Amino acid sequence: MNARPKKSFGQHFLHEKRYIDRIVSAISPRPEDVVVEIGPGEGALTLPLLAAAGRLTAIELDTDLIPGLQERAASAGELDIIHSDVLKVDFTALAHRLGVARLRIAGNLPYYISSPILFHCVAHAHAIQDMHFMLQKEVVDRMAAEPGSKVYGRLSVMLQLACRVESLFVVPPGAFRPPPKVDSAVVRLVPLPPAQLPDADPARIHAIVKAAFAQRRKTLGNALKNVMDAGAILAADVDPKARAETLSPQDYVRLARIAAE
Ligand code: SAM
Questions:
Q1: With 60 as the cut, is the pLDDT of residue 1 above it?
Q2: Cβ(153) to ligand 1 under 6 A?
């Protein structure tokens, strides 16, 4: 217990019980759930999650933390630790191995790779029931932002096309050891059912969103000029004089469909 936290692994261990309790109650694990925790660390969330669900799979990159975690979990339930970089874990295969259609994923994420982890999970969204993550508050604000907001951007559009995004509550630096420099927040992501997923090529949507927000001060007609002309933008029912941050995620889906024609 109380190993020296490693900066290179993004280690900020939660120690304030009231926030741990709030996260666990937001997740509300039930015995039939198959919960996967990313980055269990010293087990602040692992142990209460394990107590509620009875079994848990945790993915941890830092070898030094694993023996302590195993020891502490021994009487709490059935803990399976995967020693790996989470970005190398195939969640679809993991759900299959654990015998369920969809996993529940949770974690106080290492902030240095929070966006790659989000996109990795979204790529396996069909095998995920929901996700509860602690992230920098600034990132959660961007994820949940609505069109017109200053922080609405690529992350907002791409995540909202895949999941329902719900910002839950803020966690101050003092709740962690060592305290991070910024406020954190807990977010819930619920993958959309297949019928609500965009009916356009994801790579094309991504390319258009990227081009639009790369020059967010320009009009769309200008920002997208290498991708589609003003006529095509109009055909998607979007004003070529509008700016990227005013378009809804669905507007981007329509642009991608027209661009593919
Ligand atoms: N869950 C613990 C808590 O709340 O106190 C620890 C959270 S700490 C912010 C992030 C955890 O993720 C650390 O245990 C760290 O070693 C682990 N980690 C860092 N990079 C990782 C990666 N690529 N794959 C899996 N775990 C990683």
A1: no
A2: no
Ordered domains of the chain (ranges, CATH) = 7-195 (3.40.50.150), 202-259 (1.10.8.100)
Residue nearest to atom 5 of ligand 1 (CA): 13
How many angstroms does the Cα of residue 12 sit away from the middle of ligand 1? Answer: 8
For atom 8 of ligand 1, the residue with the nearest CA is 11
Instruction: Report CA-CA distances (Å) from 99 to 34, 36, 95, 193.
Output: 9, 13, 6, 20
CA distance 258 to 254: 6
- Digit-coded pLDDT (tens) for 45-102: 999 999 999 999 999 999 999 999 999 999 889 999 999 999 999 999 999 999 999 9
